[in-house]
Amino acid sequence: MENGLLANGEMVKQADLRMIGHDIGKFTGEIDWRVEAFFDISLCMNDPLFPCLFARNAWKSEALNFAFVSTSSTQVDVISALKAFVHRTKTVKEEDRLYSPLLMVFEQTGFQNLRQEHEFAWQRIQEMHDADPQSWPDAIPTDPQSSEWSFCFGGIELFINISCPSHLQLRSRNLGQHVVFVINPRAHFDIVASHKDVKGVKVREKIRRRVCNYNNGYLPKALGFYGDEHNLEWKQYQMNEPGSADFSRCPLHIHNKGGKA
User: Fold this and answer.
1) Which residues pair with 163 in a beta bridge?
2) Is the residue at 6 inside a domain?
3) Nearest of 44, 46, 53, 50 to residue 203 by alpha carbon
4) What order of strands is seen across the sheet that includes strand 156-163?
5) Per the domain annotation, does 254 fall within a domain?
6) Looking at residue 194, what DSSP letter applies?
7) For 44-62, what is each residue's pLDDT tens digit?
8) What is the pLDDT of residues 232-251, one digit of tens each?
9) 53-60 and 33-45 helices, crossing angle to 10°
10) Does residue 259 fall inside a structural domain?
């Protein structure tokens, strides 16, 4: 299947993909990987126990954005979709994009274990950085070991949730049979659930209780708030369970100058 909605490397609105979910039962023979991935994600989002309330509400409102990344042109697709998302972040009013993350879905499968999936994910994030056309923002440290660090692209701070099919204990980080990045402007969390605001802290605590319940009592120790002295943001991207890639330091190599893309 190939049409405008399912073109790789393009950012497409969830609402425009509505009929994929409705028609999944009508497909015969081999199902397109993008249709399969969308269906997997829909199963998670429609589960009332799925812990992220923001994601559930965004799904109900059909506010999510999707991008599909092929194995044949992975880097090109990733950068194309990310540029589109960053452009939207810069040009759309904050209140109109607050609950509209980008779900970047990768075609590649066949990983042997969770460690390989995590290594694949970090390689893609490094490629994002290497292709960034803008220099690293002056206000953000280049050292991921700083509590004030966050990933940036196009001058925008981003939070990247790495979800992988081999997550067994961390069911909250498993969105089906494909590696998926859930990408948000990091500043959005300061608005909807700030660690400096009593209401925001309560929202985060509620979600974490739901995460713990969804994961059958498993809650990673690395969960933290951005800006806290002992919190490292990169460790929030990859949540660990037995079998995860074991990085003593962030695997990213950050440079100041923009790339050539």
Assistant:
1) 180
2) no
3) 53
4) 12-13, 65-69, 102-106, 180-185, 156-163, 151-153
5) no
6) -
7) 999 999 999 889 999 999 9
8) 999 999 999 999 999 999 99
9) 120
10) no
